[in-house]
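Open question from group meeting: does this chain pack into something compact, or does most of it stay loose? Before anyone orders reagents, we agreed to write out a predicted structure and look at it together. Recording both the input and the output here so the notebook holds the full record.
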Amino acid sequence: MKKTLILVRHAAAEDQKLMVRDFERELLGKGKTDASAMGRWLVSKNINPDRFVSSAAARAHQTAVIMADQLQFQAGSIVLEDFLYDGGPRGYLSVVNAIPSESQVVALFGHNPDITYFAEYLSGKDLDSMSKCSLVIIEFENLEWAEISAKTGKFVLYMSPRELRES
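Structure tokens returned:
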């Protein structure tokens, strides 16, 4: 049985200000537009996650909610994970390894540089740095989520809002 992991970096958010904690930074209009476009792109490719897992930080959760709306996934069912905010690649791995086995296609929303490092760790593909609201799709053949580790995934594609606009 194949498992598919969609790693999504949060969309463009407001700059860090003295009055707003990093955790609470919200999406800009451009970020909302990009998240919506990326959600529509997933719909057009008939990619339908059955589970959404997001960093609890505002900008990542907002990205997940907007994309979930495009995919007609209930926003209230998005699982929030603190490890996706500052847990590093090991935190990401612990979250993925804990995904229930009945989930087949999972969208996971996080932050750079950790999400890029994690995509590289799983696939062995050099991605440099994922741009805001970009996504990486990685497939795993004959593995349960708990068995996923370094270089067990097959890199399928990278898509960014910029590439989407240029296509």
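Observations to bring back to the group:
The helical segments are 29-44, 58-70, 83-86, 88-97, 114-123, 161-166.
The longest strand covers residues 2-9.
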